[in-house]
Amino acid sequence: MEIPGGPIGARPLARRRVLLGAIAAPVLGATAVALAACGSDEPPPEAVDIDPSPTVEKSEALLDELALVGAYEGTLAIYPELRGSLAGITDQHRAHARELGATEADFTDLAPIPPKATNAREAITNLISRERRAAEQRAQTAEQSESAEQVRAFTFIAASESSHVPELRDIRSGVSRS
């Protein structure tokens, strides 16, 4: 039996780790909240925004996310008829980049990356390839991360990017072949 996107044995570690992280993170988070509520009369600590650390993995991931935003913007510049379909995914990549430390200046300075495609279907196929690579890279970065916050962030981004693949396939199926 094949899973959309490739055979079962093609990338078992990355998929398993993404799924494990996506399942384990909420469970572990809920357990931690329950345990914290049980044993103390002290008020819970205030939420602290954690800035991304300046590790090589983070900066590579941020650059990759910005490149994805640029690829979507480039596709939309050439195929504006796709705006309604691709705008939501583009916004999700902007949110991922912000999570990884992007600023508004990063988005302002971002140049669209035009697709190497002769039609909208090929452009979407290129985006599908980019999403697969990005999901795989984020899963690997999550695996190599040392803090729980980084693992959680990269796992959720990887899961989001993986979910874009079938969404893009659906969009592509609605685009004419000409």
Could you provide a short overview of the structure?
This protein has 178 residues and is mainly α.
Helix content: 55-70%
Strand content: under 5%
CATH domain topology = Ferritin
Principal-axes geometry comes out as globular
User: How many angstroms does the end-to-end distance come to?
Assistant: 32 Å
Task: Give the C-level CATH assignment.
Answer: Mainly Alpha
SS summary, helix count: 6
Number of domains: 1
Order of helices and strands: EEHHHHHH
CATH superfamily: Ferritin, core subunit, four-helix bundle
Poorly predicted ranges (pLDDT <50, ≥5 residues)?
Answer: 1-13, 30-45, 53-58
The chain-level mean pLDDT equals: 78
Major sheet size, sense and barrel closure? 2 strands, antiparallel
Strand order, sheet with most strands: 1-2
What features would you describe in this structure?
With 178 residues, this protein is mostly helical. It has one domain (11-40, 55-173): Up-down Bundle (Ferritin), CATH 1.20.1260. It is built from 6 helices and 2 strands, in the order E-E-H-H-H-H-H-H. The protein is globular, with a radius of gyration of 18 Å. The two termini are 32 Å apart. Mean pLDDT is 78; it is low at 1-13, 30-45 and 53-58.
Write the layout of secondary structure elements.
Layout: E1 2-3, E2 6-7, H1 12-38, H2 56-78, H3 83-99, H4 104-108, H5 120-144, H6 148-173
Antiparallel strand pairs: 1-2
